[in-house]
Amino acid sequence: MKTISSRHNALYKRMRDASREHAEEIVIEGPKAVADAKAAGWTPLLVVGEDVIFSDALFNDISDTKTSQGIVALFERPRATLDQLFARHDSVVIALDGVQDPGNVGTIVRLAAAFDAAGVALLPGSADPFSPKAIRASAGAILNVPCATASRDELLARGWPLFAADARGEATDPPARRAILAFGSEGGGVSEEIARAATLIAIPMSSRVESLNVAASAAILLSRSYALRCPANS
Amino acid sequence: MKTISSRHNALYKRMRDASREHAEEIVIEGPKAVADAKAAGWTPLLVVGEDVIFSDALFNDISDTKTSQGIVALFERPRATLDQLFARHDSVVIALDGVQDPGNVGTIVRLAAAFDAAGVALLPGSADPFSPKAIRASAGAILNVPCATASRDELLARGWPLFAADARGEATDPPARRAILAFGSEGGGVSEEIARAATLIAIPMSSRVESLNVAASAAILLSRSYALRCPANS
């Protein structure tokens, strides 16, 4: 197989654009994650390390070398709509309201799969779940969880009961189904527009810290929501 | 104030060694984290950005520039013993058994503070909680949580009830007090030595993922342990 070593090569440019811009195409790294994507029914457009070989310098441009283990695959970017998320009435829709860190977004996508959420609505100010860092943090779950961008107005227009993780709230159980569960930025929490419309849920904790990481808050509330929904398993 | 720009400067070398080796001295970055450390009773040995100024190149060597906001402080490394952790009978001791990622270790230290654990025992194969990456992930909690390294035998010799997060276990509540709660590596779980001695606790979840991130598992079980311990708050 020919090794591509020129940055003018069209395949290289396509992989590089997908890893940086993740607009219409995205990259998934590592043999395990790529195998999982195939098992989930996705067909790679191109697999670097199988269909084609890049020089080390070019490969480094498009991958996190530790995660990729020599394999980076190109996929069409999945597009989910709000309608798809709200088609399921037996679980909750997660809304991310200004979650800027791609690692946190990817971790929450993984939690959405683990606790069988209907999907993730990305409100303004949240990181792209299809960036390489978010995809890595999702541990392959990204192709398994519908993710749709939406404005706050579009989300609120659905008219579903809205709950938000917020330290100012009451320590009550999260919803089990047919509701939106929103998480905000690390420092500021959810936006005022969401907070005003939501029932605020606090997680009981000691006074030894000011706040929890947003992915930790999501783990706690989503696992509790799942246990309420599937009591036979808990 | 004089700007230090030589890599031969003794203060620079001391800061650099603390950031890389974190043996006897550690670095804490950012005005908020340094203020929190002072509020917790720790006195910095030196604050770069206040007591002394480093050139940009030298400052970049010792800091994550985004987090530090121009401030990196040197502190004596805290040393806790297993005896200190086991002196508290009103909470749980966390044991990390081969948790290699410093970000996960730091996140769990933050959770230990949030859910008022007695402290963290670091078994072989776990990352140093005093590395800059772990300290950043702890969001300042590191100086507030006793962390002690220990062998598995030393931990087991305490004779406390031992529980471990493990998908092979039963979906039962974690202990509330006077017990050890162990977490293992992302891929392999806790070591065989710990697994054999422990009651294994599984977190109920869907079959859409194979496993949870270790910090997510810790968030769920530690928050539940805290709620059982402090029912008035939950």
Mean residue pLDDT of chain A: 93
Beta-strand portion of chain A reads: 15-25%
User: Strand count, sense and closure of the main sheet of chain A?
Assistant: 6 strands, parallel
Task: Decide which structural class fits the backbone of chain A.
Answer: alpha/beta
Strand order, sheet with most strands of chain A? 8-7-6-10-9-11
Principal-axes geometry of chain A comes out as: elongated
Which ranges of chain A are low-confidence, i.e. pLDDT below 50, for 5 or more consecutive residues?
Answer: none
Order of helices and strands of chain A, N to C? EHEHEEHHEHEHEHEHEEHEH
Fraction of helical residues of chain A:
25-40%
The N- to C-terminal Cα distance of chain A equals 52 Å
CA-based gyration radius of chain A? 19 Å
Characterization of this structure:
2 copies of one chain form a homodimer. Chain A has 234 residues and is of the alpha/beta class. In chain A, the strands form 3 sheets. Chain A has a 6-stranded parallel beta sheet with strand order 8-7-6-10-9-11. In chain A, strands 2-5-3 form a 3-stranded antiparallel beta sheet, sandwiched between helices. Chain A has helices spanning 10-21, 31-39, 56-62, 65-68, 82-86, 102-114, 132-137, 152-156, 192-197, 214-229, and strands at 3-4, 25-29, 46-48, 53-54, 72-76, 92-97, 119-122, 147-149, 162-170, 179-184, 199-201. In chain A, helix 6 (102-114) runs parallel beside helix 10 (214-229). Chain A starts with a strand and ends in a 5-residue tail after the last helix. Chains A and B meet through helix 6 and helix 10 of A and helix 6 and helix 10 of B.
